[in-house]
Amino acid sequence: MGTSLATYSAFRLVKQAVEHSKPVLMISTGPSRADGMNGLEKMDREAGTVLRAYLDELLRWVFRLRERGEA
Predict the structure, then answer these.
(1) Rounded-to-integer distance, Cα 13 and Cα 16, Å
(2) Domain of 56?
(3) How far is it, in rounded angstroms, from Cα 19 to Cα 32?
(4) pTM as predicted
């Protein structure tokens, strides 16, 4: 998340994923070593805000399934 791409180990993980044609979405503000890497999508946002919104939506979806008896 975010600044973890400033370390070499996180960059290496992203590089390996891209090399193996895995989808990679980086949620970060500002530049990183992975910017411009082919196969990498970047969302220029604060990771905490995006992940919080995603989790809220996921939980709403799960609760709707439970209400219908589908989960």
Answers:
(1) 5
(2) 2-67
(3) 18
(4) 0.66
